[in-house]
Amino acid sequence: MKLLLSGRALTAGAVAVATLVTGGSAAGAATAPAPAHPVADGTAAAAPDIPIANVKAHLSQLQSIATANGGNRAHGRAGYQASLNYVKAKLDAAGFTTRVQQFTASGRTGYNLIADWPGGDANQVVMAGSHLDSVTSGPGINDNGSGSSAVLETALAVARADYRPTKHLRFAWWGAEELGLVGSRYYVNSLGSAERAKISGYLNFDMIGSPNPGYFVYDDDPTIEKTFKDYYAGLGIPTEIETEGDGRSDHAPFKNAGVPVGGLFSGADYRKTSAQAAKWGGTVGQPFDRCYHSSCDTTANIDATALDRNSDAIAYAVWELSQ
């Protein structure tokens, strides 16, 4: 998640011509024992449980990438390119059609990664996305390896289940979010009005494993909001409306373009109140993420329970909203 007041110049206006690279083969897709798509009697498919071990394994890979590349995965740096290559390879092997969209920000080349699951109504697109870049000061494992890894594992669960929803599924990993939502804004601006109108919902996941977590739900589109609230109500976990990140993450360009948006958040540098600690546990008076935008945002900076719950909530929403 980008800083609310950033001293860094936003250079979205300096974007270059997009370069689209497609790849991937259905031959690499894994198959689950039971297909998770609507059965013959019309019964809706149930979302799978997302294996937390798999999500944590992706986080470990992102940590290793940062460690090997100057301690970060920031825009225009080798760590970001290696992160994108890691995610893309997983998606290509699972049978997604991937494309890389190129832009320029702050004098450096940036990249978005877009992955489409074959099938579904191309006039009704459900998107789930997260930013893949970190700040330069740290590896960005909660911000936003957590969202990136959970979205990746949800996409891989789609492939394992050979899920065939009514709507078309698209997943995205954004570049240069930390410079001011540059990548996601470039993507939205690159779409014509007709293409934007085909997106029935964009789901954003930015910081979902905070070590002193809260359970926050975006209150933008009512249907998407209710989907997430229903999931957490089923777990007996109270939620709050997300306010800390308003306009600070990649849902903002979609919302500004009229696309219905929603998402989840576990908190950044705001401090947990006594009322919140009574609901969720954790430490009163401490930030939700004390390592926000710091070098200590490592794999040790993750609450596994919050990450597990939010990962499952992502899958639940993807399945519910795409059928």
Describe this entry's structure for a reader.
The structure is a single chain. With 323 residues, this protein is of the alpha/beta class. 36% of the residues lie in helices and 17% in strands. The protein is built from nine helices and eight strands. It starts with 51 loop residues before the first helix and ends with a helix. Residues 5-42 have low confidence and may be disordered.
Q: How are the SSEs ordered, and which strands pair?
A:
Blueprint: H1 52-68, H2 78-94, E1 97-105, E2 108-117, E3 121-131, H3 141-161, E4 167-174, H4 182-190, H5 193-197, E5 199-205, E6 216-217, H6 222-235, E7 240-241, H7 251-256, E8 261-265, H8 274-280, H9 304-322
Parallel strand pairs: 3-4, 3-5, 5-8, 6-7
Antiparallel strand pairs: 1-2, 2-4, 6-8
